[in-house]
Predict the 3D structure of the following.
Amino acid sequence: MKKIKQIFITLFLIGVLFGCNYNQKQKDEIQLYEFEHNGKTMKLGEVFSIEKYGQPEDYTEVESCAFEGLDKTFNYGSYEVTTFSDNDKDKIYSIYFLDENVKTKEGIKITDSFDKMKKTYGDDYEKIDNMYTYTKQKTQLNFIINNNEITSIEYLYAVQ
Amino acid sequence: MKYIKTFLIIFSFTLIFIFLNILFSPKYATNLIEGSMISEYYDEEVPHDVIFIGDCEVYANFSPIVMYEEEGISSYVRGTPQQLIWQSYSILKETLKYEKPKVVVFNVNSMRYNKPVSEAYNRLTIDKMKWSKEKIEIINNSMLKDETFISYLFPIIRYHSRYDKLTKEDFEYLFKRKKNTHNGFLINTNVKPYTSLPSKKILSNYSFSDIDYSYLDKIVSLCKKNNIELILIKAPSLYPYWYEEYETQIQEYSRKNNLQYYNFASISNEIGINYNLDTYDGGLHLNLSGATKLSKYFSNILKENYDLIDYRKNEKINKIYQKKINMYYNDIRY
């Protein structure tokens, strides 16, 4: 009887531990901004691959002064993905909207109003000049507003 | 006897500590050589009439050897990667302790940054600077929030984890320096033509910050105080974008302060720069061929507009420069 009790307690503790881990994972996923386009989800900080996200229309490499590694920019017509080099892997650093043909996952596009942005994302932003930044952990969603209209949208990953 | 023993123990410990600090510090001799540029200046034997200060757009684009060959101008580039304006100011102050140039050339590209960008770039500018009031000033003004002053004072605090990454370079250059530049100019003979660039991003604010203007004011008054002509330049480059709004502000500032300003990016055709041949990284920096064209062009401007000595006529200095010229062409060949 004592042994059965011990097994149950052990199983319960394992369950709690895994449950916590699962909840934490779920929480982490919710806590990050991500971009969806054509049914594909791009996560900031994630390894970028053309196989996964498709062939870009244009591709640019920018070298840094002194340090090895390239910032690579993949142009997909309406948006541009920039990666940074981390341990020989290209990870997504920025997703920059080039026109109003793409929307954020929550449905905001360039030319939408400031009010619509606030209604969608709320008041918990940081404002510097006319840029409004929403932050979720290491990810940022930046909007630039001119004359009450969104003129720029960019997802950014905080590189350490 | 007891005191002698204690003294010897403390002395030995200090010596070992100093040695370990030198050993663990990056040498920037064969790897990340840009970190060695700041200290090469201390070995100079000739006076310089022209001093360049600024970021990579000066050390990659202006060749003092070409300027000497062209017009006999003695110049030095005190540029470092991503040199921020408050760093340029302190480096200029430090330079004035060694000599008084007739002309200071400042590349305005750094006006776009209003705060320190990365510790890695800070280290390339600061690590090999001689200890001085100016070095302390640069450290205090440039540290990011995770950095500490003591790690600059005792590099072992920052670099202790290099214990398993030490290479032959760390021992070979323990007590000596490797010369990597030619009067501060870093030769790059590679050719990578311009193909395309990332899109021009909309900015939330195109105005240079108060801190940038305050340091530009300080550079202006330091030059005035020392009777030095200050020239502002924007080196030729296709990226990062030099916005029209930036250009307007610099033009306005130069006009108000009665300064000469040359935007070489806007006259790159006149200089003869061909971004298919004259760049090593697709249009960000000039290669040797581009830098030679720009240096010839600029040395003509300097000769025509400023009262500079033709050092080719000075036997002693010309002899030193001939050695420099030989080393320059030797490095280009190999």
Remarks:
- The longest helix of chain B spans residues 2-24.
- The mean pLDDT of chain B is 96.
